[in-house]
Amino acid sequence: MRTAASSWGHIFYTGRVIVTIDGVAASGKSSVASGVARALGVPYVSSGLLYRAATLLALEAGVPLDEAPALLTHLHAHPLRLEALSAGNRVWCGKRELTDDLHSSRVDGGVSRVAALPEVRAWVDAQLRALPAPFVAEGRDMGTHVFPQADAKFYLTASPRVRAERRARERPEDVPAIEAALIERDHRDRAQSAPAPDARLIDTGTLPLDGVIGAVLAALPARRA
């Protein structure tokens, strides 16, 4: 199958192609991945939403965020489903959609603890690897661990202040407080947020969203299914 991202003057051959977009928190991974996926006509996959959903369910049920066995037992009893769409991902627990509740401050504060649990990471990785390609996958260690065989890998970065200002436009919170939280999150996430050796690094701090999407599309290799 051939998909042309004509507005960018670039042709990309899909098939079972996987593109990964990693990066630090609030660097624009979801927005960029969604834009690239729309341009290519393929779904995008947000691994972070599964970690956020697991965190939300644990918080609601009073399950300790550091106890992997209890958390996994709760997840198996309340299965999550990631609906991967090019325009945006949705997460369901049975008939309940969790998507709108996944970006609260309390989930922000706990998701790194949940994502640091090896057992939970293995559970999320299994959900992601079961998805049929082609797709654009965004999130921590997508190019280094989950999809090391990916055809193209990108890593997004920006200064903590730039990222805090972006997040403040989405939520009514103080920029310095958000910046401090992001710096702390960067420290906690360091083990999962290193770029793959073959990833292309993009500083999103000086580029508009369309510019970052264009940079990714321009760097994609032409492929035949």
UniProtKB/TrEMBL annotation:
InterPro entries: Cytidylate_kin (IPR003136), Cytidylate_kinase_dom (IPR011994), P-loop_NTPase (IPR027417). GO terms for molecular function: kinase activity. Its EC number is 2.7.4.25. Pfam families: Cytidylate_kin (PF02224). SUPFAM superfamilies: P-loop containing nucleoside triphosphate hydrolases. It is found in: Cytoplasm. Keywords: ATP-binding, Cytoplasm, Kinase, Nucleotide-binding, Transferase. Belongs to the cytidylate kinase family. Type 1 subfamily. This is Cytidylate kinase.
